[in-house]
Design goal:
13% strand, globular, 32% helix, single chain, 135 residues, 2 domains, alpha+beta
């Protein structure tokens, strides 16, 4: 987790974190095919990537976009979530699941005082089976 501001290049920092995590798996006496998938989630409160998507996934590819490994075998992923790209005034009914998740992260401290948070909680409660209430 990168909490403090830094003048370092963020893409280099997060690439390093991904490589370090992936390389820390214990493989002695095992096959490389047993490597577990490593995913680094990066939440930004600024716009960093020049596109319209709030969530982007980066993997090992060449300059033409050709993947180095088959998608099913790609074990290293860097997922960026640019929360600043969210239109917080968008009606709840028009938000997709990613937008709702980001909205929740940005506003959960408001609790049910926020009408969108209240709707999210109510919709979640509706999906709980009766056994869930007993737990």
């Amino acid at each position: 987790m990168q909490l403090r501001q830094t003048k370092d290049n963020l893409s280099i920092i997060f690439s390093y974190y991904l490589a370090r995590l992936h390389g820390s798996q214990e493989l002695e006496g095992k096959y490389y095919g047993e490597l577990k998938e490593t995913i680094v989630l990066v939440f930004f409160n600024v716009n960093l990537i020049d596109n319209n998507r709030m969530c982007n996934t980066f993997t090992l590819k060449n300059e033409d976009g050709l993947s180095f490994v088959e998608e099913s075998q790609d074990r290293m992923k860097l997922l960026t979530i640019e929360m600043a790209k969210l239109d917080v005034n968008k009606p709840f009914e028009e938000m997709n699941e990613q937008e709702k998740m980001i909205y929740y992260f940005l506003n959960c401290y408001k609790g049910i005082e926020d009408s969108k948070i209240k709707m999210m909680i109510e919709k979640r409660v509706e999906t709980l089976p009766d056994e869930g209430w007993k737990k």
